[in-house]
Amino acid sequence: MIRKTMLTGFILLGLGFTLGAQAGQLEALGFAPTARDGMTEYRQVVGDVGVTILPNPQVTPMGIRFLGELGELLPSLQVIKPESILLTLRTGESVGVLRVSDLTVEGRQLVNLLPEGLVFRYANALVYDFSMVIDNLRLRVRGQFINEQELVTKLLRIANNPSEYLLSQDSEYVFRFMKEVQAQNKEILEQLAQTQSDLTRAHDRIAELETDLTQSNEDFETLMNGLLVLNSRSLFGGLSDFDRSAVSMLVEWGRINPDATQKDARDWVKDQNLNISNRVIQAVMVLFFNTVE
Fold first, then answer.
1. How many CB atoms lie within 10 A of CB 114?
2. What is the helix (H) or strand (E) element at residue 101, kind and residue range?
3. Tens digits of per-residue pLDDT, 239-285?
4. What is the SS3 assignment for 93?
């Protein structure tokens, strides 16, 4: 528990500043100057709590009242167990950051939900303004400080039902979140429409390509049949047709046996008892597989 001397110390500190306190007066009040990043801050341990006045304090009567209210508040805390206090004294608004070592309410530890500690501000009244992080959801907790019980009860209610608190207290956040969701949904719908359009065009193009492929295959077959007829003409130049199904079987066999020679092809045709002349076999092996003797 912070000793009552905290209150006295803050009041004396405030009086010291009203008289234009310098570093020596801070030291006289028990604050030791410590250099940090090329600047001087003032520290004191009161009870088990480290109190730090950050560099370049700007003390006004309002800031002195802030020190006085903190001096009254800290010794009265029963549930909130302070660990350290950082004080920033400025002309417009003074800030106190209270680091907490323990905050157990109805058996639930809340310290881990307060990554920034408890932040108190003072302009015309003592208010709290800090964040609670629950399930990756950052909730801003603001209000005028009435007493410790009111604050810890509020923290427990938020911890137990963060969604309800978000909906009931932070309508601006909810509205912004809804706008973001609407924008995301609009973007997704636009992307889906574009994708569907692309798919339709792709489907049409595939159908065109399939038609072209079918026509190309037919043209290729006609051309190859014509070449086979030309390359299998008789000694005296006469043209004769051939068994196309038998030639198809020979072509399939040739694809399975890419190293086959024309002799291998003739032997296979003979074994299969197919009606294909040697001239046609020769033409197939040359035209399809570039195999010559």
1. 20
2. strand 94-102
3. 455 677 888 888 889 889 988 888 898 899 889 898 888 878 887 87
4. coil
What is residue 46's three-state secondary structure? strand
130-154, pLDDT tens digit by residue? 999 988 788 889 899 999 999 999 9
Q: What DSSP character marks residue 293? A: -
CA–CA dist 10, 33 (Å, integer):
17
Per-residue pLDDT tens over the stretch 74-124: 888 899 999 888 988 788 888 999 999 999 999 999 999 999 999 999 888
Mean pLDDT across the chain: 78
Contact present, 74 and 82 (Cβ < 8 Å)? yes
Nearest to 31 by CA among 6, 56, 60, 51: 51
- Per-residue pLDDT, 236: 44
| Structure-block tokens of residue 81 | 């167990």
- Which H or E element spans position 169? helix 162-169
- Can you tell me which residue has the tokens 């480290």? 50
Residue bearing the bigger pLDDT, 45 or 93:
93
The Cα–Cα gap between 21 and 29 comes to: 10
CA distances from 48 to 85, 150, 227, 288 (A): 11, 25, 103, 94
Residue 273 burial (10 A CB sphere; 0-12, 13-18, 19+): exposed
Residue 133 contacts residue 113 (beta carbons within 8 Å):
yes
Cα atoms found within 13 Å of the Cα of residue 113, Cβ hemisphere only:
22
DSSP letters for 221-286: HHHHHHHHHHHT--TT-------HHHHHHHHHHHHH-TT--HHHHHHHHHHHT----HHHHHHHHH
